[in-house]
Amino acid sequence: MRTVLICDDRRSVREGLTRVMSAVPGVQRIDCVSTADELLTRYARQSADVVFVGTQRAVASGAEATRRLMAAHPQANVMVFGAPDDGGSIAAAIAGGARGYLRWDASRPELVAALAHSAVGAEAGSMPMQRSASPGAGVNLTEREMQVLRGMSQGKSNGQIGRELYLSEDTVKTHARRLFRKLSAADRAQAVAQGFRCGLVS
């Protein structure tokens, strides 16, 4: 390694990730773009070993950038980064072809470790999803767990899900913990992404 390309429309995010990545051994070049159009132009001119695309709640730019890049360059190695409770945006980016994700609230050592892992040549399909295991083919969620997972995929809070299902917030949290365990997920975003991959949500 190698080369890293960051795509996010927020300058502070691009600069922050650049500072962190510059400390990762083996990273030789870090470039930044702010839009999907710039990402496609930049990648076509000179590809990168890893592409990091930022996602935001209720903003489709990250998922759209991922989808367009993967459609044009299926070999691209894309990792998305976003809020741990923003399962919808993460899932949309995963659906668009991203191969892993990082949480916004990851500690600096976790972020550096994940970036280093990507930088030393993770093969397509093996990008690290934080503290995850590959989703199994035989995931068996209860109806309540499915309802909670669907609510998460729509970006609803535990309180909102509880009100719709006539459940207390604590009960929703209990169902969430159980489905996290079944999906080998560390948080809401990863649960939705795993659920999408397993065909449990769409």
Describe this structure in words.
The chain is α/β, with parallel strands linked by helices and 202 residues long. The protein has two domains: 118 residues, Rossmann fold; 56 residues, Arc Repressor Mutant, subunit A. It has nine helices and five strands; from the N terminus they run βαβαβαβαβααααα. The chain has a five-stranded parallel beta sheet, sandwiched between helices. α3 runs parallel beside α4, α6 crosses α7 and α6 crosses α8. The longest helix has 15 residues. It is elongated and about 50 Å long. The termini are far apart. About 8% of the residues have low confidence.
The total tally of domains equals 2
Q: What's the average pLDDT?
A: 80
Number of strands: 5
* Oligomer status: single chain
Any idea what the CATH architecture of the largest domain is? 3-Layer(aba) Sandwich
How would a textbook summarize the main sheet?
5 strands, parallel
The first-to-last residue Cα distance is 35 Å
Lay out the secondary structure:
Blueprint: E1 3-7, H1 11-21, E2 29-33, H2 36-45, E3 50-54, H3 61-72, E4 78-82, H4 87-95, E5 101-103, H5 108-119, H6 143-153, H7 158-165, H8 169-183, H9 188-197
Parallel strand pairs: 1-2, 1-3, 3-4, 4-5
Helix pairs in contact: 2-3, 3-4, 4-9, 6-7, 6-8, 6-9, 7-8, 8-9
What's this model, at a glance?
The protein has 202 residues and is of the alpha/beta class.
List keywords for this structure.
WH-like_DNA-bd_sf, DNA binding, 202 residues, alpha/beta, 2 domains, Rossmann fold, transcription
